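Pilot study result, target chain (447 residues):
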Amino acid sequence: MTTPTQLAEQLSTTTLLRFATAGSVDDGKSTLVGRLLHDSKSVLTDQLEAVEDASRKRGQEAPDLALLTDGLRAEREQGITIDVAYRYFATPRRRFILADTPGHVQYTRNMVTGASTAELAVVLVDARNGVVEQTRRHAAVAALLRVPHVVLAVNKMDLVDYAEPVFAAIAEEFTAYAASLGVPEITAIPISALAGDNVVEPSANMDWYGGPTVLEHLETVPVSHDLTACHARFPVQYVIRPQTAELPDYRGYAGQIAAGVFRVGEPVTVLPSGRTSTIAGIDLLGDSVDIAWAPQSVTLRLSDDIDVSRGDLIAPANDSPAVTQDVEATVCHVADQPLTVGQRVLLKHTTRTVKAIVKDIPSRLTLDDLSQHPAPGRLVANDIGRVVVRTAEPLALDAYADSRRTGSFLLIDPADGTTLSAGMAGASFAAVTQAEIPSDDDAEWDF
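Predicted structure:
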């Protein structure tokens, strides 16, 4: 039996994968999540007993694993507000944070919330129905959010007699579609969540499939931790000036490193002012260190006494983002009140919040067929569209394609603090070559 100490040591040496699931109720998403948790032994005994008891009362011999996540489904049926449900589990090989996101078109904003920090998205498809409009929406949102890995889980293979041609046709159609949107990696897996085929254990009913199970893929998919390849960014959250007898001249800039690595002696630029200095010291948990990396919370000390305030961004002098007051971005509108041209808003980027005005809404994305609706004039709840925003003060903003952390922002109602839209700076979808776009599709996705 694993002791708590051994478990802690085991978890400390494993990597963390954040992933999101998307799929309608009829596609069996709740069953897939329940099966994944159950078969990986991530369900508490009392939870399983409650599910078994509820299943017996329904006249079912086997436990209905969908009941493990039935709360969200009940909310959908009642028509009340839906939130993303997060679940945490671990195997000996990796730790996981699962964002269980509703995929209905009216809950697009919720999928955006759950998938915004995901490194992988599992898109569920019913083998009997194939790729439908809902599937295309999920692929579009994953592409917009630059999710690097997408798994196509073709479910209910038991209802199509585990036929390889059915799976192959669905996988080919989805892969071509997702690739045209710029999704960099797509893995298709045939499963039966109800029977457990290829979820955690390999299926004996599909000997024609030689790929990984869902859990095996989740455990082995590469998660990039090459921090040296990231653009180093440090949003200043707080200026520390003790002004005590022991520390009369101490001036430190505290915050969480958003990306990359910082080293003592490195020349840096403070944005948006553009002033330059050198890192004189890095304080971490009360100790001085020579190097720090994301997502550590540290205090940077600079060699020059320059004006640095909350909301400023510290970056390497030779790798600083451009400073601008004109922001062109894709946004998902999440508020019930519309976003209109000429509307005054607050724009929150990392630790900096500035006044802004919506100058233009060039287009709205129609998620059903990914066509563009030009000059809509406004965006309503769950709409995704292009916006042009003019800020009152300059921002050091990366392109979302380069940094999901420092390329994202929120638009906020200045009257009551309501979040209006979640924004992604720069181009909407990743660039793909013409040869990668299927010739039979009207694939002008970028707008």
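One observation from the pilot: Helices lie at 4-12, 29-39, 45-57, 70-78, 108-115, 133-144, 164-180, 214-220. A full batch analysis is planned for the follow-on phase.
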